[in-house]
Amino acid sequence: MTEGQSLPRLRVFLMILAGLVVLTAATGAVVVAVRPTGLVAAPESVPGTAGAARAGVSDLRGLSPQAAPTATASAPAVRATGDAGDTGAGGDPGGTGRTGDPGGAGRTGDPGTPGAAPTPPRLLVISRSTLPQQTRDDIAGLEHVRKVDVFDGGAVRVSGAGLNLLAVDPVRFRAWAPRAVAAEQGVWDALARGELVADGAAVRRLGLVLGSHYQVDGGPRLRVAASARFGLPGVDGLVGQETGRRLGLLPGVALLVHGPAKATDALGAGVRKLLGAGSQVVPLGAGGAGGTGGTARAKAGTGTGTGTALRPQAARRAAVGRPGSYLELYRKAAEICPGLSWTVLAAIGQVESSHGRNNGPSSAGAQGPMQFMPATWRAYGVDGDGDGVKDVWSPYDAVPGAANYLCANGAGQGGKKLEKAVWFYNHSWSYVRKVLGIAEAYARTYP
Question: Which of 49, 84, 248, 306 is 20 to 30 A removed from 126 (C-alpha atoms)?
């Protein structure tokens, strides 16, 4: 790609970033699938699930819950895929995490291996051209700077809609990700395979469907393999370095800077002085636009829209014992959320794991018969059978845990609130239609 060809993409990249919208604090991994309302998937897109909602339902009277053993090293490896309609697809969207400030994490190019200390970015720098090595060294030498790293970036278009992307080395970038995202192996496998990991806000805004392929205008096709919250305002997703080269992204124009959260303002002032006019310096630490670390004011939530998303309150009572059938288990679990029909729990159980037959871990890392992500299980999991353990693999805990999560999102109020609560479980309106369709079938089968 010639210099003349690269300038339009750079202008678009900078223009879109110039109108940054402050996103919700991004500390949790979220793998979602949503109804395509904006971009149109290429022909190999995930097939619709409208007919699946009319499928037959399982015999719940004769199906006995069995507490599955905890996953071991022999469990299936986590891979980043995505199909809201698949059994065991990992429907849980919560997954919040925490970022730390370990300090002293090194300078440019520290490896971001899974065991490496997280280095939450305090500044995102977007330059008009490749940052010279001397400039990077000067920034790394500033007071309070503990680590810097540079990545490729630019804007591409899909069906005319602009996407701001960073091209990263997954190993190096992993340490910059929020802790919960760094723990999701499927995200990094997807990048290594040359696939796109979209920011959660971009998924919602553009109606991207996980597992679908999208044709880049004048470029290659991209498969949207996963969704995660990276906390980088204006950045719609990540690709690997080789994919970035195929897309014509600009080399070395994006820089992340790590240091103490309390020094974010001083860091920004020092970097701006070195770069001069024309470059953008976006604060991400305490009080910054991204709110990814330190004392970010916005709280991570289940993820609707922008602004502060407060986590809903969980139900307090969840005791169901050890019923002998799934039918009784779903009915007892629904009682902890007044107004919630047991048939909705049964439908989710059928879609997610076929009532415990496929407990995962899923491709997204979700676990157990109701397919919870680990972080959300920590927030909403319950001890349903009174054995003193909140076990995501046990149906006696997982089913009331799902009722707890749905109730916290308003499922007991019925109507549109119920639909939205199911959408929170898996960010896909086709998933909502499928679950509610199966729930109706259960209601007819077990009046």
Answer: 306
Does residue 298 contact residue 308 with C-beta atoms inside 8 Å? yes
CA distance 18 to 306: 17
What's the full length of the chain, in residues? 447
* Separation between Cα atoms, residue 280 and residue 278, nearest integer Å: 7
Helix (H, G, I), strand (E, B) or coil at 238: strand
Nearest to 238 by CA among 247, 264, 55: 247
Phi-psi group of 90: left, alpha or beta (phi > 0 → left; psi -120 to 50 → alpha; rest → beta): left
Kindly give, in sequence order, each residue whose CB lies less than 8 Å from that of residue 2, ignoring residues fewer than 6 positions away.
none
Whether the upstream peptide bond of residue 361 has omega within 30° of 0, thus cis, is: yes
Answer for the pair 175, 110: CB distance below 8 angstroms, yes or no.
yes
- Cα 72 to Cα 170: distance, rounded to the nearest angstrom: 25
- Helices 326-334 and 395-408 pack at an angle, to 10 degrees, of 30
Q: Which residue has the tokens 């507490």?
A: 67
**What region, left, alpha or beta, does residue 4 occupy, with left being phi > 0 and alpha being psi -120 to 50 degrees?**
alpha
Q: Quick one: which H or E segment has residue 134?
A: helix 133-140
Q: Is 214 helix (H, G, I), strand (E, B) or coil?
A: strand
The Cα 413–Cα 338 span in angstroms is: 8
Q: How far apart are CA 299 and CA 25, in angstroms?
A: 6
How far is Cα 404 from Cα 337, in angstroms, rounded to an integer?
A: 7
Is 227 in contact with 210 (CB distance < 8 Å)? yes
Q: Which segments within 2-50 are labelled E, that is strand?
A: none
Q: Are 221 and 41 in contact (CB under 8 A)?
A: no
CA-to-CA separations, 273 to 2, 93, 123, 253, 290, in angstroms, rounded: 30, 41, 14, 17, 21
- Cβ burial, residue 444 (10 Å; 0-12/13-18/19+): exposed
pTM of the model: 0.47
> What tokens appear for 277 in the block?
């006019």
Q: Whose CA is closest to 442, among 49, 60, 50? A: 60
171, with CB counted inside 10 A (0-12, 13-18, 19+), is: middle
Looking at this protein, which amino acid is placed at residue 53?
A
Read off the pLDDT of residues 163-221 as tens digits, 9 standing for 90 and up.
899 999 999 999 999 988 888 888 999 999 999 999 988 888 888 888 888 888 888 88
pLDDT in tens, 387-431: 888 999 999 999 999 999 999 888 988 999 999 999 989 888 999
